[in-house]
Amino acid sequence: MSYWSKYPDIEKEMEKVEELLEQSVKSRRKIAEDASLDLLKAGGKRIRPALTIISAQYGNYDSNKIVPMAAALELFHMATLIHDDIIDNAKSRRGIETAQSKYGKDIAVYTGDYLFSKAFLLAAKVSNGEKIIHLSKFIKAICEGEIEQYASKFDHSTSISTYLKRIKYKTALLFALCCQIGAETAECDVKTSRNLRRFGMSLGTAFQLKDDLLDVTSEDAIVGKPTGNDILEGIYTLPLLYTIKQSEYHKEVLALLNKNNFTKKDITEIIYFIHKSNGIDRTRKMEERYYQKALDSLDGLACYPNTQILIDLVSSMRDRIK
């Protein structure tokens, strides 16, 4: 059963998005279509297109405009996931083999590019030139966030504020974009659009912090990728950064991180220090702070029925285990 089945109006539109996604990834080149479908069929809540639809329902909702835009934004997201997996040399995502592992890096690059082009094509059909420029600027900023993360690999000196800024570009900005594009396409007033954008930005930041926590607290089978994978790839997330910055654990953790080759035992030991140093608890507090900021953004929207859906979504994301 879909998460959105609790909300029939949303579920109906999400079914249209799913149909359009399947149509959009069709290609004369079967390998590109197959690689795209593998990721598409892996499932998930489709939070980003749902945010577009939910936000648009605060205004003059037009399914013929909103559904293609929601699908376009999900295709953008899928493209970034495929490219991420290439950079991270990831073998699995959501419990399935990644495109780069199954088809090779070359095909994965082409598939990601293909999805980007299909996303822009969909968006262009229902948007004017100004919106496409606006959309392009957001996507540029998201890509810059990814580049910043790559450039900062294995950098244990990253400050907490720098890290939070990076994940806002890398992850939260797309959540904010989905909310804003939905609201603006539905001709919501400026205040409503601004509040929904703020909601998306805060929710997206909390979402990434939850991912950071899951990387060092969950079983491999649940999250669909190896525990400690971020550490292995040199991506030092908030729980680890909190630990490194404590003098009591600084030396021991850096000695492990500076090894030429990590073993599974090394990763387990680093995760042990993260737990012992309260890196987990401190990250949870930061995560909770952003959930609360998301809820605070909805204070001026209490009279709208969709606000309860967004409140429910925050609760669901707080409890997620993968």
Number of helical regions:
16
Number of strands: 2
Strand order of the largest sheet: 1-2
User: What is the succession of H and E elements?
Assistant: HHHHEEHHHHHHHHHHHH
Return Rg in Å: 20 Å
Mean pLDDT: 90
Roughly what fraction of the amino acids lie in strands? under 5%
CATH superfamily of the largest domain: Farnesyl Diphosphate Synthase
Structural class given helices, strands, pairing? mainly alpha
Shape: globular
Explain what this protein looks like in three dimensions:
It is globular, with a radius of gyration of 20 Å. The chain has a two-stranded antiparallel ribbon with strand order 1-2. It has 2 domains: 8-126, Farnesyl Diphosphate Synthase; 129-321, Farnesyl Diphosphate Synthase, CATH 1.10.600. The longest helix is centred in the middle third of the chain and has 28 residues, at 190-217. α4 (63-88) runs parallel beside α7. The two termini are 17 Å apart. The protein is mostly helical. It has helices spanning 8-24, 30-41, 47-56, 63-88, 99-102, 105-126, 129-151, 160-185, 190-217, 220-223, 229-232, 238-244, 247-257, 264-276, 279-297, 306-319, and strands at 92-93, 96-97.
Provide a short characterization of the protein structure.
One of its GO terms (molecular function) is metal ion binding. Helices cover 75% and strands 1% of the residues. The protein contains 16 helices and two strands.
Topology (SSEs and partners):
Layout: H1 8-24, H2 30-41, H3 47-56, H4 63-88, E1 92-93, E2 96-97, H5 99-102, H6 105-126, H7 129-151, H8 160-185, H9 190-217, H10 220-223, H11 229-232, H12 238-244, H13 247-257, H14 264-276, H15 279-297, H16 306-319
Antiparallel strand pairs: 1-2
